Amino acid sequence: MLKRQNPGTPERSRDLTADGGALSMSHNDSRSFFNLSQLVLSAGQIKPSPALKHSKITYFEVEIVDVQSKKQICIVDKVPPASTILDVKHKFHKACPQWYPSRVGLQLERNGPFLKDSTSIQSLAVSSIITLYFTDLGQQVGWTTFFLTEYTGPLLIYLLFYIRLSTIYDQVESRKNFRHPVVHLACFCHCLHYIRHLLETLFVHKFSEGHTPLKNMIKGCAFYWGFTSWIAYYINHPRYTPPSFGHKQVSYAALAFLEIEPVFQVQPTTPSHGSSCWYPVPTIHTRLGLGLVSR
Asked: Which residue in 208, 63, 211, 64 sits closest to 137, CA to CA?
């Protein structure tokens, strides 16, 4: 006998097939969404491109204001972003010739420090107009001129006393009195000391292009020249008497001179207006010997 087929079986199969296809499509969609989300997460957060600072600014305008009166002195225009404070000083010197660059001190704030010559203008700018405060540093001299003047004076002054000029000593006494050998030794040591410093200033020491106020050189020269005149007057005087302990005292003094003569070394310093320079200072061995520092 033939079995009777159930009429609802084909329709049910078609329904199951349709349901399986829908599930497969939804599964594929979920996998595609998962892969897309993983791709986005692996790419990381998209960072916006940073805006260039002062990218639209071609030139700056620098306003120079007097630090005391707060009055505008001049405006330096068309300053490129790559310019430095030294470039601004040169442009300022063209507008005001009485103030050369080494005499000009510029500050970003009235009570702030002096800006270094190497400072970039772009690093100071908040807008296209920059206000700087001007201070007159006074007449300036270079460091090489400073030291040559200080050391040349004592050398020449001592020699004037050594030859016993008639304007300084009585010529009658100068001819009568015999010079003790220690007077010649003192002159030799003094000249050797300052000639050495002059040669080191010219050929050994490396000075920066900085400057110092003229009043500092006057103070230094007053000390060196005045002290030299004081000791030279008594050592070269016609009535000078030799040391009380004789040759032993002279020998010890000569050895001490040879020991402490090379006691200066050049170290960098920074003046108040910001430019570094080189200045000879006593070494630690000299300070220990003079009792200026403890061991």
From this structure: 211
